[in-house]
Amino acid sequence: MAASACATGLRGSLVSSFHGTWGTSMMGEDYPALIQSVPRYVRVGPPVRSPPCMKNVNEGKGIFAPAVVVTRNIIGKKRFNQLRGKAIALHSQVITEFCKAIGADGKQRQGLIRLAKKNGERLGFLA
Asked: Which residue stretches, if any, does this entry annotate as coiled coil (predicted)?
């Protein structure tokens, strides 16, 4: 008898104030007010990304920039980029051979290649 009284008392204290169904609690009277309180500028979906900008910050600067721009205009952008790619590849090979000759490791070689790129930008070769 005492066990049933405890169970009944316990059950009585666990009664919630929830009256209704899940539908009325989720879509009840406050739902329209909640929807109107959300700002309209919130975008739902994946963020919009702008395309990456691959422009050279030193464009038009450097002692060789005018010659590079004139050459690009004369032979065309496509052909110019092909020649530039070949020149960069040859220069990287020269740096690699130099590193082999002096016994420099790959990390030092990469550092020299980065330095060559920075110098090329400053001088206007990458205009």
From this structure: none
